[in-house]
Write a structure and sequence with these properties.
The structure holds 2 protein chains of 2 kinds.
Chain A (H helix, E strand, L loop, with lengths): L1 E5 L5 H25 L4 H9 L1 H4 L3 H27 L7 H19 L7 H27 L3 H21 L35 H19 L1 H11 L1 H6 L4 H25 L13 H11 L4 H25 L3 H18 L1 H4 E5 L6
Antiparallel strand pairs in A: 1-2
Chain B lengths: L7 H27 L7 H19 L2 H25 L4 H19 L13 E3 L9 H5 L1 E3 H19 L1 H11 L1 H6 L4 H27 L11 H11 L4 H24 L5 H19 L19
Antiparallel strand pairs in B: 1-2
Helix pairs in contact in B: 1-6, 1-9, 1-10, 1-11, 2-3, 2-4, 2-9, 2-10, 3-4, 3-9, 6-7, 6-11, 10-11, 10-12, 11-12
């Protein structure tokens, strides 16, 4: 019979090893799933993980990796700060939408004026929008002790309705022949989040994601606030005695997560997506939760996990067109990843021992 | 705008129907939380139940078999959560979230090819004599059997928790798992059973939406009802009767906003559709003043060595 024995300290080896083991287990389970769907399992896995990087069309897919990875990393970095301190913001999808609406709204307000300051203003509006949306659960938690998980999630549904209302009403393209959706920001140079180097996929969102990774790393390792975040998560009682102000921490973690999610939304709406439309959001806010955990809530880990998750998105699309693999299969695949990670994670804190039961 | 088109009797009757999936999911989650486990995967279990029930009902032609399959599907998915949290001692918040993400994907995968199909109709039970009472008859006594089953389930859960030994043990596990363990109760086994009960209820609630209330299958059709059910448990201060009250309150809001949409009120449709979520937040804020009612061991992992 197997029993668990608590380790005196979390195993360093397993901390690094669990994500790798989880990915391998997910690939195996995914292969079984794909086989059940009547697809060649080896070819499916190869299509998802190999083709985007090394096939003859990789020159087209590699930039996509940055485009898909940037919002995931940006959002996940923000989420990880809160998750470390036991503050559960799961409404990043809503903050992402509001950031996009606010940013695009500011840009469209200036249309058709061309000026250098429009894009920076949009960035500011996007971050502020996401921040403000996250402040709702934050303030309610600080003031009334309301559960931030439920409030932030409810606000996703509210934001989705707001998005529908905006793309059908206030932000609708007046020259759009009655179709829903705003003007296309890609055709408005001052508001367009264009590629910095043509064909590289590198846009301002990618730059921000990298900056966010570096800043989060410094915050967590070199700054008092980062120490307080880690302390609150690992030893809440010790944190209280050390004089950590929980209200400040909640406002900071949720606010940062909201601002980063809002930024991700703004960069997406002004770049790859181009317009505010009903189906603008594609679930990055939720996938980012998986990215944050897969990256062990560590900035560098999140960067790698974001890349991997972007790979499954792109590989999934290739598998969809080439092998007819349903889009939902990729969603299941991503969900399984978190499952396996949480399951394997037990080895970080516990030793698995085989014991033979003795006769009393 | 035409308020005259809203028939109050029909409104109240459809309120009972709209409240049933919420009621089922919330009463299941209440039992789970009273055992000290926070399962945030209600939404995922509901949507999985919705497609399991739908697919089986379409294939067998029997909606009752569909409902049973939905409960089984929900319970099976919840077993994954049970393994993660009870054996691998994973964080319950993260595990619940992963259950929802996985369930949404799984249901979309299973549901391919079921879009646009009509499920077999569910028989309505007209209770003789009672259903002929004017006003009260159509509101209360002309529903399908699941509506009454939901009410009976609330009564049963209330009675078991309050008056039986099993209920006492369940509450003991939820309040202080170390003490319960010291008394010789199998904490993990009791929690797994509670989690599976919650999963079955959530699955049933999901199938009620896809088989009876809507009735058809669309991806993501539960649209946050699982999350509202979670909020309902908080609203109810973990008390069965208040879950019922809350479910009817939210059912009422949903039905009312749908009726207002149909009546063409001057408020845009999107803002009306937001209202159930906004009211959930409002209710959470009001109820969060009283934290004392939450089971003391809620959300904490149990390991016998500690």
């Amino acid at each position: 019979m197997l029993t668990l024995e608590k380790r005196p300290q979390p195993s360093r080896l397993w901390t690094y090893l669990t994500p790798v083991v989880a990915v391998i287990l997910t690939m195996l389970a995914g292969a079984v799933l794909f086989a059940f769907l009547g697809k060649d399992p080896v070819q499916s896995i190869r299509t998802i993980f190999w083709e985007p990087l090394f096939s003859e069309f990789a020159f087209y897919y590699r930039p996509q990796l940055l485009v898909k990875g940037a919002p995931l990393v940006l959002i996940a970095i923000g989420l990880s700060l809160g998750f470390r301190a036991g503050i559960w913001n799961i409404g990043a999808e809503g903050q992402y939408i509001i950031g996009a609406i606010c940013g695009a709204g500011v840009g469209l307000a200036f249309y058709p004026m061309e000026a250098w300051f429009i894009f920076p203003l949009m960035v500011l509006a996007g971050a502020l929008g996401g921040w403000a949306w996250a402040m709702i659960p934050a303030l309610l938690k600080v003031r009334f002790g309301t559960n931030e998980i439920l409030v932030s999630l409810m606000l996703v549904y509210v934001a989705e309705q707001l998005l529908a209302s905006m793309s059908l009403g206030l932000l609708k393209n007046p020259e759009g022949f009655g179709f829903p959706g705003s003007r296309n920001l890609q055709q408005y140079p001052s508001a367009h989040n264009a590629e910095l180097i043509a064909g590289s996929g590198m846009h301002w969102g990618v730059v921000s994601a990298l900056v966010a990774v570096i800043l989060a790393y410094i915050l967590l390792n070199r700054h008092m606030l980062g120490f307080h975040i880690r302390l609150t998560g690992e030893a809440p009682r010790a944190a209280r005695f050390a004089g950590v102000n929980p209200a400040r921490l909640i406002l900071f973690c949720l606010g940062t997560a909201g601002a980063l999610a809002g930024l991700a939304g703004l960069f997406e709406v002004s770049g790859p997506s181009g317009q505010v439309s009903i189906d603008f959001n594609v679930g990055y806010g939720f996938t980012a939760i998986i990215v944050a955990f897969l990256g062990r809530l560590h900035p560098i880990g999140i960067l790698l996990a974001g890349g991997l998750m972007a790979l499954t998105y792109i590989g999934g699309e290739i598998a969809q067109s080439k092998l007819g693999l349903p889009a939902a299969a990729i969603q299941v695949f991503q969900g399984m990843l978190l499952f396996f990670l949480l399951a394997v994670d037990v080895t970080t804190n516990y030793r698995i021992r085989r014991v033979t039961r003795e006769v009393a | 705008m035409d308020f005259g088109s809203i028939n109050p009797i029909l409104l109240l009757a459809s309120l009972m129907v709209a409240a049933t999936p919420l009621l089922l999911a919330a009463i299941g989650e209440l039992v789970v939380e009273r055992a000290g486990v926070l399962n945030l995967g209600v939404e995922g279990m509901m949507i999985t139940g919705a497609i399991c029930g739908f697919a089986i009902a379409v294939n067998t032609g029997s909606p009752i078999v569909g409902l049973v399959a939905a409960a089984a599907g929900g319970a099976a998915l919840s077993l994954l959560f049970a393994v993660l949290t009870q054996f691998a001692l994973a964080n319950q918040v993260a595990s619940g979230l992963s259950l929802t993400l996985f369930g949404l994907g799984l249901s979309a995968l299973l549901g391919q090819g079921y879009q646009g199909i009509k499920p077999p109709p569910f028989p309505r039970v007209d209770i003789p004599l009672l259903s002929d009472i004017p006003v009260l008859g159509p509101i209360l006594f002309r529903h399908d059997i699941v509506v009454y089953f939901g009410l009976a389930l609330v009564a049963a859960v209330w009675w078991v928790l309050k008056n039986t030994r099993a209920g006492l043990i369940l509450r003991a596990v939820g309040e202080n798992h170390d003490a319960a363990h010291a008394l010789g109760y199998k904490v993990v086994r009791i929690r797994i059973l509670a989690i599976m009960f919650g999963g079955a209820c959530a699955g049933l609630g999901g199938a009620y939406i896809s088989l009876i209330r809507v009735p058809q299958w669309t991806e993501g059709m539960t649209a946050g009802i699982g999350w509202i059910a979670l909020a309902l448990v908080v609203f109810a201060s973990w008390k069965p009767w208040r879950v019922m009250l809350g479910a009817y309150l939210f059912g009422g809001i949903t039905v009312l906003q749908l009726n207002l949409q149909a009546a063409g009120v001057a408020i845009p449709v999107e803002y009306l559709a937001m209202s159930p979520y906004l009211i959930t937040i409002l209710v959470l804020v009001i109820m969060s003043a009283d934290k004392s009612r939450a089971p003391a061991a809620l959300g904490r992992s149990f390991h016998a060595s500690q």
